[in-house]
Specification:
3-stranded antiparallel sheet, 21% strand, 8 strands, 177 residues
Length: 177
């Protein structure tokens, strides 16, 4: 775990290698996945730029190489490097777009479509063989479904030949994404 929920971060982290997931846990213990940060991301940037209170947990999903710097140094760096700030803005807008699509999916789509959409998102974002394990429990946290419901939908997708597992890693078949 890099940063725990409600912790005051010790600085802003830059991800050079690997993936970091951000999630929240409800008082009932239900997990909701928010996003996955990939190399080139600064976290938690909202805390660094807007002084928002951190309510999320940031946890490495794979082996990571990260650097930590004081918040003031990162803010100054971004202000003095508009090309990097512009790149961060593009990444942020792409992330917001994905989040809005996920919200729409969770509210309006069937269980099957929710699972399909999250797998398509992962396939487009990370490639056909996911570089990290994606247990049914985590897919449930991404889709707002029960783990058992996700398992049924995954079994259906495997039977349809759209996905397969290689050990603990999910392979999204060509043509599915």
């Amino acid at each position: 775990m890099l940063i725990g929920a409600d912790e005051n971060p010790t600085g802003i982290f830059f991800i050079e290698k690997g993936f970091v997931k951000q999630y929240v846990v409800s008082p009932k213990g239900e997990v909701l996945m928010l996003t996955i940060f990939r190399p080139g991301a600064f976290i938690p940037l909202t805390w660094g730029l807007n002084k928002t209170i951190n309510t999320s947990t940031f946890e490495s999903l794979t082996e990571v190489v990260i650097y930590r710097a004081p918040k003031e140094d990162v803010v100054s760096f971004l202000k003095n490097n508009p090309d990097i700030l512009f790149d961060r803005t593009q990444r942020l807008l792409l992330g917001i777009s994905g989040l809005l699509e996920r919200m729409q999916t969770i509210v309006l789509d069937s269980a099957y479509d929710r699972v399909v959409r999250v797998l398509i998102y992962f396939g487009k974002t990370f490639g056909p063989t996911l570089p990290f394990p994606l247990p049914h429990k985590e897919i449930a946290a991404w889709t707002g479904l029960a783990r058992e419901t996700v398992s049924l939908q995954i079994e259906k997708l495997v039977r349809q030949g759209k996905i397969q597992y290689s050990g603990r890693h999910l392979l999204i078949k060509k043509g599915f994404v």
